[in-house]
């Protein structure tokens, strides 16, 4: 890797920058970018009043951001307003882009998102990756990546970093897949397999899905549990707007919370884990169906058609989710739960029993459960946006390029 | 209240101060205090090299801290060293003190801790508070408080704030006890009952116990679960050196994680919660004993004497703790678990079955479980130290007084 992975890692708030004059300037550049991103187009005076700096200080910062291509001027504001007309500022639709990628059990996907948050290029390949060794999968992903970058460059964008969502546990180094049971991958360093020119971050798909929900969801609270599933069940714990990652990076393993402590054995070494009752494989088995591709589509289709075996299996999964979530809610006291990923598509049949279980185990009003509108797109979008957020959080770090 | 409660609240790191020149000065004052506290006595030059500021900048900060009585000079360092002799700096043993208080089910306690971390005054009253209304309990606590403050003042200390540990859920306002089932208190605003001259913080005893472990424990990691018990079972979740409090302030309710989802009914409205298997009442019942005062002493004494009923009951409690902790560890991935409060005294009989349960439910090496050396003192010390930490984190906020 030419750039250390932490450069592209979804950074914390900009105040984590060093506490010097130089650090203060960098934090203030970030404040300008975030203000314009959130509320733009804005005049320099409006930015100054939003972030509590003088007009003169903001002008210096804005000039730097325009010079380096992160902001652009839309020309003078329309006349008729009080005072000297200012030029409205907007986040640039050219310049740095976040490249997101997803290695799914059944697909590969790559996209490019600009600083405005728009998807500007995208490539997908369907087909199972189960049991394939990492090298050919990453070669295929790299081809999609090249396609997307070429398309993005045609539009005046350049890749500020690459973030990859994987269905497994990722080490805190943010490039090693420690364990992805449903790909059968162990200790795979994606940094060594992917092209070296991209600053790389790898994270669990549930984590990127949770971040997407935080950044792109409608009225998402800043404290919530994002529960998602493919074959396994994972959760992202978002606490005060940040991911709780755990010491090794393994936090959020909701699928291995014991539901019935003497229940069936689980791959994790435990017994009666949630995954044994609400994982896709368990639900298919309970419904008497085979494990194939597009499992969610199959279950949703049959449930919609009124297949009572499938509906009963999904009710059971909802109950098990309710028991495991009761434990998680007692521990974490979030503002809400969001069902994402594959669970979003099955929500109509999971939610009633899930919510009944929460209600019967809670004295007060139970924690609200909502369904993600991003669904299976969440992890890919979260990955790309994590790179964009890193640029917005420290614009000075990319200002030299482009 | 003369001072808003957040002034004494255990603050986050000093970098949460406003990002201005003034904020930078305040953060640097905090850095000087923390450096001298952690490694003192130190010369000005040694402080400068520790915190990466110039000698001249440090001298200005140190002069201010000496003037306001937070640091003191120990006189010139002994000769024989290279260069001009500097005067060694130490944290003052006079000036602001943290006042900690605990409302326990069976006792009341108050102590004063100076900036060096030493307990300088203390008062305790034994006797049950079960079923007593808040007013007489707080009157009694206030008498202890006055005793401790008088004694501290005699030694040149003044109270920088009061922090109170309670066996129940506390609202995020940090002064309202929302629910303390074992006192039978509901929605009690301690701010209205305690003397108004103290900046007040109220928190759950498990949280203050966890903070005490973080600040005073030997080799405590920065990510851990602190599990404690009186009649209920609570946990403090310490993530990267900070408490995870939850949206309403109710995080850490390990006692209400379902262990056997179809088990006995619980006061929380659920079924088969951990408290039904490992709470003091459940253990006493399983051992065929009555609920009285000094329940832990009774159980520990009988277990030590080889009472097989008590030992079996404690083994069962350890197994239930292991099941609930398996869920918590999968969700949070901490570096370790610390058994504190009443559980510390029972650890010899709980730990074997608890650790066996974790081992049999975990594929890799199980999370290490240790026993707090602070034991039942933890919450009181954590409360007092939280006030001391707030002073160290923002010395400028108290510099005007004394």
TrEMBL record, chains A, B:
Ranges of residues in domain HTH marR-type: 30-81
InterPro entries xrefs: ATPase_NBD, HTH_MarR-typ, ROK, WH-like_DNA-bd_sf, WH_DNA-bd_sf
Signal peptide (UniProt feature, chain positions): none
A Pfam family recorded for this sequence: MarR_2
Region (Disordered): 1-24
GO terms for MF: DNA-binding transcription factor activity
Family: Belongs to the ROK (NagC/XylR) family.
Protein's name in the database: Xylose repressor
Organism: Streptomyces aurantiogriseus
